[in-house]
Design a protein that fits this description.
The protein is an alpha/beta fold and 320 residues long. It folds into two domains: 1-131 and 285-320, Rossmann fold; 135-282, Isopropylmalate Dehydrogenase, CATH 3.40.718. It is built from eleven helices and eleven strands. Helix 2 (42-53) links the parallel strand 1 (32-37) and strand 2 (57-63).
């Protein structure tokens, strides 16, 4: 696979203030023992070590020692303080990482140099995984230079074509995360191409149903409105121009996308064209799961771990 294109650097005023604030909020919280699955390249090792240096995690490096040590040495990284849990290959590393959580030896998972599908296959396994009653989903915390508040986007990484029932959990997971991050009564915009309900666009019907679920308290903790187009979800002027009367329109804290393709493109457009920064976390499992990307900056990797620490703290985590 070709290496990712370099991302234009984000201005310090954009993402760094938010993400450094997240790390600062973790001060005084004991670092989480974190199983890092197959960290066999410089990027995944550096991400784990950076989070450890920030006092967020105590990494357990799970994978083949014969690959981990040379990767660290070639990158000039000191892993002498890290426990290495042997596993012969990436699939075994994913399984062993999940097993460490189930055994109570780790309180968070972090993706290393393996495919997301490999790790999530073990996470969702019926008998040996980390499922809960809630649908597992992913959320990005985005800091966009010209948007006046943090923005959560879900689900751009896990659920390819979520059903209405899936979206109920996806929305609830995102609201719960927003509350942990200190967003009081988060405003949830359920996105489609238009802001009116039409049978020609099934996503508009599902958006309307999610709003009624919130009215009936099947979804709690936030204000839910939709369908909303992207412009009138984030722009007060666009909402006013369309005559939309809503407590969410133009001021969304959470954007719920119709499917993974739409969400993935939206996040990448914001990061690569707008200089936004994105930290991500998997929600709905027994523990937080940090999914890193090769294109992530160091601060994004550390911020993703900080989000995981804050989530785990809310659940009385296992600590070092």
């Amino acid at each position: 696979m070709d290496a990712p294109s370099p991302r234009p650097p984000a201005p310090v005023q954009a993402g760094h203030a938010l993400f450094r604030g997240l790390v600062a909020r973790c001060a005084g919280i004991a670092p989480l023992v974190t199983a890092v699955a197959h960290p066999c390249d410089a990027l995944s090792l550096a991400g784990a070590l950076d989070a450890a240096s920030a006092g967020l995690i105590v990494p357990i490096l799970v994978g083949p020692e014969a690959k981990i040590r040379p990767a660290a040495e070639s990158a000039g990284l000191d892993i002498s303080a890290c426990r290495i849990e042997p596993a012969p290959h990436s699939h075994a590393a994913a399984a062993r990482s999940v097993a460490l959580v189930r055994a109570g030896e780790a309180a968070m998972l972090m993706k290393g140099a393996l495919h997301t599908d490999e790790l999530m296959h073990e996470v969702v396994a019926d008998d040996t995984g980390l499922r809960t009653a809630r649908r597992i989903s992913h959320a990005f915390l985005i800091d966009v230079r010209h948007y006046p508040r943090p923005l959560l986007i879900t689900d751009a990484a896990i659920n390819v074509r979520p059903t209405l029932e899936d979206k109920q959990d996806i929305v609830q997971n995102a609201i719960d995360l927003a509350l942990v991050l200190g967003i009081k009564t988060p405003r949830v915009a359920v996105l489609s191409a238009v802001e009116t309900v039409t049978a020609r666009l099934p996503s508009t019907i599902e958006a309307a149903a999610l709003c009624k679920m919130a009215d009936r308290r099947q979804i709690t903790g936030g204000l839910v409105d939709g369908p909303l187009a992207f412009d009138n979800a984030v722009s007060p002027a666009a909402a006013e121009e369309k005559g939309i009367v809503s407590s969410v329109a133009g001021r969304a804290d959470i954007l719920v996308v119709p499917d993974l393709e739409a969400g993935n493109m939206l996040v990448k457009q914001l990061t690569f064209l707008s200089g936004a920064e994105a930290a991500g976390i998997v929600l709905g499992a027994r523990v937080p799961i940090v999914l890193t990307s090769r294109a992530d900056s160091p601060i994004e990797r550390v911020a993703s771990c900080a989000i995981g620490v804050l989530l785990a703290q809310a659940r009385a985590p296992i600590v070092a």
